[in-house]
Structure prediction request, 309 residues.
Amino acid sequence: MLQLSKSLRMRTLASLEDSYELCRQITAEYSKTFYMGTQLMPFAKRRAIWAIYVWCRRTDEWVDGPLASSTTAETLDHWEKHLESIFAGDPIDDEDVALVDTLSQFPLDIQPFRDMIAGQRMDLYRSRYETFEELKLYCYRVAGTVGLMSMAVMGVAQSDQKAPWDQEQGFDIPTEEAIALGIANQLTNILRDVGEDARRGRIYLPLEELALFNYTQDDLLNGVVDDRWRELMRFQIQRARKYYTQAERGIRALSPDIRWPVWSALLLYSKILNEIERNQYDVFSKRAYVPTRRKLLCLPVALLRSKVL
Ligand SMILES: CC(C)=CCC/C(C)=C/CC/C(C)=C/CC/C(C)=C/COP(=O)(O)OP(=O)(O)O
Prediction:
């Protein structure tokens, strides 16, 4: 019976090609920046990243999407079982077909996927973070994990593709740097979306850091932009940039064919911080956005860096 229902289900699922195409469309629709990055990758890696992106997006939707108000801990337990089924090679939905294929081709571990679900659990119960350590754990879970997943697909440089001194620097598998890029991206996202999150009653910035700048939760919820806020934002932006710098050091340890896309994604996303500065730190009434022309300008810069750094 179980066998029968499984085979019935299998027959109604999308073909491999259609599933990857679905993942491509979803990635293009939801994340312009990362989609642009993936377009610079070799075919097999590009579509694997789309399959992973879609699973991450679906995971995020449980707490951020239209059905979020009915999501409970049990919903996420169920989603974790769904994940185990994918890792067992048994797709449930059309989007899973591509991910099952990706798992058969790249050495992906289930742990970062589980950690990301744990990150969504945090979002379910918490709307405040007291310290940066707590926020950092959240950022690892919802975004650092994406770095780990992506790295398994992108691959690291073979020893004959590296200069001898790279090995001495212990850059064999740049795990910390991959996590750092996820954290940098997430911190950027948090800074860009402070106003939007406040309107949903959420504050991601650590409360003890607000206090350090004499800025209150009420100030934030009311969108007060003054010297205290600008100082606080300068401090936050500086820290996000440190994570970008750490990530940059790991890129040359990656396989050469994906250094350009990773540099591009890094530059494109970090530019949002420049836009926040350009907007005089007003993240309440404006959404920091990098215009397409400025985005395109990043690509040759990224190419150059991927060759020389
Ligand atoms: C640097 C090294 C060694 C490896 C690279 C490893 C990678 C690719 C890390 C990047 C991880 C990543 C893409 C994290 C996602 C974080 C994030 C905040 C995504 C935001 O996604 P959306 O919310 O869809 O984006 P927008 O809303 O900004 O379009």
Observations:
- The two ends are 58 Å apart (CA to CA).
- The chain has 16 helices and no strands.
